[in-house]
Design brief:
By secondary structure, the protein is an alpha/beta fold. It has helices at about 15-20, 30-40, 45-75, 85-135, 135-140, 145-185, 190-235, 240-245, 245-300, 305-345, 405-415, 435-440, 460-465, 470-480, 485-490, 505-520, 535-550, 585-590, 595-615, and strands spanning about 370-380, 380-390, 395-400, 420-425, 430, 445, 525-530, 555-560, 570-575, 580-585. About 65% of the residues lie in helices and about 10% in strands.
Length: about 625
Amino acid sequence: MDGIRNMANSSRVMSALVRRTRLPHAERADWRNLRRILPYLWEYRGRVVFALACLVVAKLAVIGVPLVLKEIVDALDTERGRALALPLVFLTAYGGLRLVSALFNELRDAVFARVRYRAMRRLSLRVLSHLHQLSLRFHLERETGAVFRDLERGTQSVSTILNYLAFHILPVAAEFALVALYLFGLYPAHFGAAVFSTVAVYVVFTVLFTNWRVRFRYRMNELDSRANQLAVDSVINYETVKYFNSEEAECRRYGDLLKEWEQAAVMSQTTMSALNFGQGLIIAAGLTSVMFFAATGVIAGDMTLGDLILVNTMMLQLFLPLGMLGVVYRAVRYALADMDLIFRLLDQPREVRDRDGAVELPEGACDVVFDNVGFHYRPGREIIERADFSVAAGGKVAIVGPSGSGKSTLARLLFRFYDVQRGAIRVGGVDVRDCAQDSLRRRIGIVPQDTVLFNRTIYENILYGRPGASRGEVLAAARAADLDDFIARLPDGWDTLVGERGLKLSGGEKQKVSIARAVLKKPSIMVFDEATSSLDSRSERAILKALERASAGITTLVIAHRLSTVVHIGHILVMDRGRIVGQGTHEQLLAEGGLYRTFWNLQSRRAEGAEAAHA
């Protein structure tokens, strides 16, 4: 965990993603994001075209309904029509058009369903893949609960936008154009003018009012993400909460956020009610004016009763979806805001990238060279200064020193979680910056200081080291880690679930699983980062023997705070404040004095005191 404390005051990368309420609409590239959806539709472009064709057919049928209804009314309004001979044709056509509209609407939805959900699936996979490719720096600074809440909303927003664009906005636009053309073509100009004026006022009012009130929705989203993050963090750290009797404090913090969320939600609902009333007033005024014109025309004899019914029906068909257009617009605005989070996440730069022509590391043992390496998380605060050492192929080197001296940072640099700012790290003679990351990490196995397991079975957690391994190889790795007896005593044996982050196992048991997983990987380089720190003396001795066997012929770095675990290693490096302040064998370092001998004396006295107390 070296160097993490030094990042405590660094700016949070995720703050720009989670606190999106501070980003005005102009700063969100909504049109650019919409264009970025297009590649996800291209795979099923045939389905998209067919769905749009179904949409056109359905809308033509919808427009045909009032036309047929006019003929029915006009026919029934005559002596001949009352004989029910002529209207039967139109009645049949009326029912047929209704059926065609329903059929093609449902066919459109069924055809487009795979387009929507495939786009969601592909985008979700892309985001998760990108999260795994981002640097360790990003993941140390992220807010996990907020990220995954945004991921859930963002991927759902893609489906929402596609659904509304294809099945609400485009249909309303098409229907409005057909109705307007018909009215302008067959009726006086003031009919079409009334319709256009009503729609124009409606759209302007909806856009302006929604843009004003959308801030409350953004505030709700921010507070929702923050509350979710706090709840997830609190539950993950359940034991710590219990240790410090902080249940009430955690609930109070969560409740304070929910109180703010409630206020924002109430304001959002109140302003939405005002918006709905304004929209209803505009539609009522427009519909009334058109009906007034139609009724005047009937009285004057310029229009038939069928014309009155036609205009009324067309207005109802037009204004009914138009009344929903306000809801659609708000939903699209909210979805665009949510989708923007996903694309902003995808735009997060990958700090560590493979170079063009990155090479694959060869199989087999290889040496490791730290050539005058310098590294910092932030300028002005060096974590590693002039780290200069090498480990021969198949050889072993121990790295010791106090907490915060930079030991574990060396392992992260070797894995290329970060790139060094000065010098170079070479594996098998190749600068790790010239290696393909996948190739590099396949060659390195690690037993980390803080072992975190997946909420899966013990068998699956060990198999994670090399998914293609046989069951016999998994059992052998467990024996090498002194884990087989423990597993045999469990009621569910190998099928025992370890719990979230491995919380059902003790610290020592988790480390044994981690050791077995690393052994199963069969790497060319092995890193033990405080690999026995959670084990008792008896288990430590057994594990050290197992590790000795497992690392035979493998280039090995042993990072340790407990010096008793490395006394047998022929080359020991002593680190302090990011610098190598001594190196040699155990005996040589004791003879030289300095930090190593001070630590040895302190740990020896502590061990003697523990043995005396135990006796």
